Amino acid sequence: MAAECQEKRGEEEAQPRLPDLGFVRDKLQKFQSKMLTDFEQRLSCMVEDVLQDLRQRELRAHEFPNFERSDRKSTWHNRVTSQAPADVSDATNGHANGTHPRPPIQSETSARKQRRQLPEKVFVARESYLTALLQVEHMRTIYHIFYIILVMFLLNVICYDYFVDGRFDLGLGTFRGGLRRLHWVMGVWLLEHVFVLALYFAFRGWALVRHKLKPHSSLQRFWSHSCLILYISSQLVFCFVSTSLCLKFNLPFVSACVLLLESTRLLMKMHAFVRYNAERVLKGKAKNKMRRRRKTPVGDPLCRR
């Protein structure tokens, strides 16, 4: 009997223990409830996004019809839109599963260079957003309300100056105080324009030297990188000098705003000039169509075809 009990006990220990079915059932139920909750949340978010898109389209179609116009003449295309990728079945070397053969090393390097090129700008005349907004009745109503508030403030100032002070000031003292030391602002503004004009000759010198160093690629790259560092340093110095002069001359608020905003405008002008013409110099394009018709010197990279 003892031997039979030991054999049965050994057989029971040898058999694998089955997992608890209740524990597995609880885990499956929790997993099912979690999946259903996640699915309901995602579905509700998608439905809410679709409804929000429909509400926005209806609002633009009824309240802001000018933004829905697809006229090419009234649209600004800031960049040339890239074409959609062609279908695999239309490709000459495409495969049925959508895979493509590995391109050679030269094609990869050329594609990398094309990605590094700056996109070409296309400017088209368009209406401003304020012009389109003011064509809406609700926006015109708000615009007229601001007009009335301005007129009421003006009448309040006139009546107060006449009945209290016995004269008409119209708050001109504020303008006189804010525009003090305006002659210093004009002087700094003229010096900034001289700096902007000097940038053209510096850029032209960079292009000429770069064209002469064309046989020596390493020297050409070193020259371009050095000029780039000098250009960035000059822009930083330009911003620093404008700000420091505002503090040195102790300019009032309005005069300081005039100087700083004008400095920002000139800084953006310089960046736009360098950004646009640097690409033309690197590609060797002509400066404009009129220059192409004229007889251009061979050594000028800005006027070369």
TrEMBL record:
The keyword Phosphoprotein appears for this protein: no
A GO molecular-function annotation: O-acyltransferase activity
Coiled-coil regions listed: none
Keywords: Acyltransferase, Endoplasmic reticulum, Membrane, Transferase, Transmembrane, Transmembrane helix
Transmembrane segments: 142-163, 183-202, 222-243
Region Disordered: start-end pairs: 72-114
GO cellular component annotations of the record: endoplasmic reticulum membrane
Entry protein name: GD18564
